Amino acid sequence: MEHVASCVRIGVALTTLVAALPSAAAAQQIPPLTERLVDVEGRQVQVWVGGPANSEGPVPVVIFENGWSGIASSWAKVAPEVARFARVLLYNRASHGRSESDGQLPTPEHVARRLRALLKALDIAPPYVLVGHSWGGPLIRAHAALYPEAVGGLVYVDPGLPCVLERAFEAAGFGDRASEFIERSQRPDAAGVRVGQVQSGQDTIRLALPDVPLVLLIGLKLDMQRPPREWLRERGINADTIIARAREQKVPCLSWLASEVPRGLLVVTPTSGHVVQQDDPELDHRFRDDISIRQPRPCRTSSGRRQVSRSVR
User: Fold this and answer.
1) Which domains occur in the chain, in start order?
2) Side-chain half-sphere CA neighbours of 256 within 13 A
């Protein structure tokens, strides 16, 4: 039950960020956490650690996984908030920030094993609550599947799955264009690797989960930058139509992630975009009591799967 409360509190805390990313210059400043370079199998990994030093009973360790090309500064304001009640670990994956390359493709399984080695080097024992934004969703899923005994909870922050755009293009009548658009939209990470080179998020997301508390945060405020808009326009596709269809398809596409476990909680906010933890600073104040106190109510999806839902409006 303690893990349930911690997992939900983390989900709420993620909504307290301001609307702007920290600048690159601020990337190395995440007070009051302590920055370190840790040797992991001969490579330096940049980490930040913090949280209660002493407490009665086990204190969960909250580990933040960045998006595909993201760095730890994306959690700079929520991490100290979470560190008030839990131990916190932020880190930059290989080739990001001051972390050295490990010479390997960052598949979800490889990233999970590297994180496992990092935790061993830091002498940080479980239970772990894993928080993953975008591509970090498949990453925490892989870690939970490989090391289920060590995981005490999961928080998906708008996980990046291609099914949303695939369904949006299909609904708009341009299903044959979806894969090309998705491939062109994928940006390389700091090492020049594209997500398609490692493993499909759809494949990773099928890995079996342990029975742990889970919070799924989904933002419905969608938009599109100019280059992809131009690409669509040149092919006779209206970008606003794709955005509208994606907004309709997003919750049906992703909500099953919260229905897989008995203690799953779905939080949907139409005022947040893909980076939910930055777009709606008022969400925490409006729904702190609702999320923290009420038990989620189960319902059934059209496919018969159990779903737990809490829609924020």
Assistant:
1) 2-311 (3.40.50.1820)
2) 14
